[in-house]
Structures are given as C-alpha cells and as structure tokens.
Amino acid sequence: MAFRVPARRVDQSTLKVNQAFVLALLVLGLVLDSLPLIAFVAVVMLVSTASPDLALFHIIYRDGLRPARLVKPRITIDNPEPHNFAQGFGGALVTLGLIARMLDYDTLAWALIVFVALSALTYLLLNFCGGCFIYYQLNRLGVPGFRHSPIRVRQ
C-alpha cells in the first residue's frame, strides 16, 4: 500500500503582493535616496523570514487586500521554504547594501539593492524566483538545511 504525501500549498498572490511592496518601496527608497525606507524594507523582509506570522506585507494582503477582493487568492502546490529562503536572502542583500552605503561604498550598495528590486520585478513579471532557484540548487547539491526538492505535479 502506497502512502500519499499531502500536497503542500502556497498562495502565489501573497508572494506577488510581497514582491510588489518590496519593489515599490525599494525603488522609492532609491529615487529618494532614503536609507530609512530601504532599512524598513530590509527589516520587514528579515522579520518575515524569521517569523512568517509577522510578515507585514502578507498581513496587508490577508487582512486588507484579500477581504476587500482587490487581490484573489491563487493557491498552488509548492514548497513554502524556498520562498522563505528567498525572502531572507533578499533581506540580507538589502542589509548588506545599507552597510555598504554607510561605509561609502555607494556603487556596491546600490548594486545590491537594485539586484533585489530587479529580482522582485522578475518574480512579478515572469514568475521566476531567483532565491527559490538557489534553494533548489543547494538542495540538489545536498547542502544541509535545504531538504525540500521541487514538487513534481502529475497531470
């Protein structure tokens, strides 16, 4: 008798809302040269990674946008861990960008922050999660802590 593993699910809409906020706030922070705004995004990303229940942009989606029917849920079979890793990786890069900026390594600072903004844009437009790709490559290489393989959906 074969045991069936329960399908893991992710609401893609919450991920899209998250990336839209990250992109918009980072671009605004870059345009205004606002380190506090960029630091805010870094903190939100890192707190969201450490404690998904405190994910501010998810809370805005769950308690505001979804009930108001401004954004509809789009549930897919997926692993949440790679997305959480991607969030933390992006938050770490933004934090490194802030540190570089404070040390007057402006080119490095803006490169790191723009990279995260472009990664958010890539997910929004192409549904490609660069952090998820890294997670799955680390899983494929057998790196400890990266235990989830991509889910193959049978049609």
Fraction in beta strands: under 5%
* Gyration radius over CA: 17 Å
Q: How much helical structure, as a percent, in the residues?
A: 55-70%
Sheet with the most strands, sense and barrel status: 2 strands, antiparallel
Structure characterization notes:
The protein is mainly alpha-helical and 155 residues long. The chain has one domain. Helices cover 66% and strands 4% of the residues. The protein contains six helices and two strands; from the N terminus they run E-H-H-H-E-H-H-H. It has a two-stranded antiparallel ribbon with strand order 1-2. Helix 1 (12-32) packs across helix 3, helix 1 (12-32) packs antiparallel against helix 5 and helix 2 (35-50) runs antiparallel to helix 4 (80-102). It is globular and about 50 Å long. The protein starts with 8 loop residues before the first strand and ends in a 15-residue tail after the last helix. The mean pLDDT is 94.
Please give the structural blueprint.
Layout: E1 9-11, H1 12-32, H2 35-50, H3 56-65, E2 75-77, H4 80-102, H5 106-126, H6 130-140
Antiparallel strand pairs: 1-2
Question: Short summary of the structure?
Answer:
66% of the residues lie in helices and 4% in strands. It is mainly alpha-helical and 155 residues long. It has a two-stranded antiparallel ribbon with strand order 1-2.
